[in-house]
């Protein structure tokens, strides 16, 4: 599943996606596609437009131009709650659970389309799978930074998304916990959920991603396997500060 462009197997397609903030064009005509069930890395230097792209695709920002298609439907301009109902899930670069609620109570926040018994069952399953069951009754602002990331992921999975976008899952996480998070990401993906992971830690990208998209100055400058991307001159230039 390394095709480019809008095939029927794509869960997400952006076409000429653009976002300007005053004089800055943070995302500049971005064409991106993610196949159903694919695990894709999104890399690029600081300020390349990765988080802005994620905010556009999840409805947290409105595009200045271009189009977003999710599961074949035009969703451009839809709001985060509409998109999450459609099956778009996300985590934030800085995790922000509801701090005064317990871990368990945080899991009750998503507006799930199924009944309380199934909700209870899912919460128990997800907390166990993400090794949060032993802190279920702790306040969310008292668990570790890595556990907050896991909680955010668990909460997103309550909605059984078709696509999850992860913004820097490795940032501030110790290596042992990162190994666990990577196993979780792989398991979630193996269950059929497509994942787009933004990450500066190249070992994480290498370990996880079958395909890597490189952004620089708001554009998609290359797509390929990790090896192809690592060997590419344009990518090296981008990281060395050229554009
Ligand atoms: N709300 C905003 N208002 C004005 N400018 C913004 C806003 N959000 C992002 N930008 C600018 O858009 C550009 C892209 O930012 P973005 O956060 O998308 O980069 P990034 O690739 O996620 O970087 P990093 O790897 O450092 O997280 C930057 O120049 C940034 O300063
Ligand atoms: Mg960012």
Automatic annotation (TrEMBL):
<dbReference type="InterPro" id="IPR017871">
    <property type="entry name" value="ABC_transporter-like_CS"/>
</dbReference>
<dbReference type="InterPro" id="IPR032823">
    <property type="entry name" value="BCA_ABC_TP_C"/>
</dbReference>
<dbReference type="InterPro" id="IPR003593">
    <property type="entry name" value="AAA+_ATPase"/>
</dbReference>
<dbReference type="GO" id="GO:0005524">
    <property type="term" value="F:ATP binding"/>
</dbReference>
<dbReference type="GO" id="GO:0005886">
    <property type="term" value="C:plasma membrane"/>
</dbReference>
<keyword id="KW-0067">ATP-binding</keyword>
<dbReference type="Pfam" id="PF00005">
    <property type="entry name" value="ABC_tran"/>
</dbReference>
<dbReference type="InterPro" id="IPR027417">
    <property type="entry name" value="P-loop_NTPase"/>
</dbReference>
<dbReference type="InterPro" id="IPR003439">
    <property type="entry name" value="ABC_transporter-like_ATP-bd"/>
</dbReference>
<dbReference type="InterPro" id="IPR051120">
    <property type="entry name" value="ABC_AA/LPS_Transport"/>
</dbReference>
<protein>
    <submittedName>
        <fullName>ABC transporter ATP-binding protein</fullName>
    </submittedName>
</protein>
<dbReference type="GO" id="GO:0016887">
    <property type="term" value="F:ATP hydrolysis activity"/>
</dbReference>
<dbReference type="Pfam" id="PF12399">
    <property type="entry name" value="BCA_ABC_TP_C"/>
</dbReference>
<keyword id="KW-0813">Transport</keyword>
<feature type="domain" description="ABC transporter">
    <location>
        <begin position="12"/>
        <end position="242"/>
    </location>
</feature>
<keyword id="KW-0547">Nucleotide-binding</keyword>
